[in-house]
Amino acid sequence: MTSIVTPGAIIGKSDEHTSGEGTIERNGELVSLLTGIVIETDGVISVQSHNELLRLEVGDYIIGEVSKLHEKSGEIRVLSVENKPNRVVMADQMYAQMHVTAICDRFLHNTADALRVRDLVRAKVTEVENVVRVDMRGESNCGVLWAICPPCGAEFEAQQQGDWNVYCPTCENRAFRAMADDFGGSTGMSALNGGNKRWSGDAEALFAKGSSGRATYIAEDVREDGSPREYFRFDDAGGRGGRKPRAPPGCKLFVGGLPNDVQDDDIRSLFEPHGDITDFAIMKDDNGNNRGFGFITFANKSMAQAAAKALDGHRINGRRIGVRDADAPRDKKPKRDRPKGCRLYVGNLPFDASDDDLGKIFKDHCDSVHVQWATDRSGKRKAFAFVTIQPETAGADVVSKLNGTEFMTRTIKVDLAKPSEKKGGKSARELRAIAEEEASGKKKKFRRNRN
What we know:
- By secondary structure, the protein is of the alpha+beta class.
- It folds into four domains: 45 residues, CATH 2.40.50.100; 168 residues, CATH 2.40.50.140; 81 residues, 2-Layer Sandwich (Alpha-Beta Plaits), CATH 3.30.70; 104 residues, RRM (RNA recognition motif) domain (Alpha-Beta Plaits, 2-Layer Sandwich).
- It has seven helices and 28 strands.
- A hairpin with a 2-residue loop joins strand 6 and strand 7.
């Protein structure tokens, strides 16, 4: 068996031969790790290479470059192994993994709290089976050997200031690195790591911001064109993350009870006469349908108060809308007052009648009339309404005169609306009207099915 193979080539079966130097067993097959000649000796298959590669062992100290950082782990590209011949590491051991708890003797929320991509580090190999794993914790010679400043690309210098132990002389940026004892070619630098100490409030505040807190703008070390530098800001100046600035208290109104068929332009045109609108949104579902409520923000509080006073209870397509301060506490939001007087139930009404048409037949028998027509969720009128009249003592007389009279070709029912303490506070007449309407709908459906 004399042939040239490359890394990854299948050179035998594990049930027929034994894996030798330069090979590895994977899923019952022997795979080459080198470029060289395949040699079989007493059932052992090996790959002989003129450029020998190095294989890592537990206890080796590697020099590597941080190539990837995740929240709780990191990846290091192995560059060399200390105290061993300067050879290239085998392909399956070219990258080593490290957990956040194996970086230093301090609690880290994230691997980026103590390492950054492109840092050069020294680490000890703790595992070589399947995945190479390394550890920098517990030994002073392990840690970051060299690091650059992410904002400007200059080399960091070791300098203690509170929790921060590295300093950039170019942009004066300070940060923390889990330094090896010989960081930057000096000695005793691992003492600046503050092993087993608690973080200060400033450090905890920065780490709590997550990955955004560690993000920086990198450009000047690659491209310096004189343009102003922009850095991420955590204060509220200029907005945060592109959000709209919050309106002052009292300027934002909640609008509820909107009919499903109302258009956004109709709502906007209704509120525009009361002041300058700075923000407008009617809530929609996933299909783009109106959800029945929205928010309108005015330029100042007085405009919002005027709009709420004028439009709270206004009718749109037969439905009364509610308008109130969106920032007011729930228990302080104004409630719509029910008109005072004697409340009457009026049933069997024609659907094409208006509030004024119904009010006219009552005006001759009382001093004032307030009509409240029952509607469904879509704003469509039902066949009954409630009329409040004054004086309250005229209720029984009005019932006797108008009950059973003709109104637009229909015989209407008029009775006193008696409030009930049960079933949500609906009056007996309301419950009866609802029951009659449901029974009528079932009869119509039954007739259609028979036809």
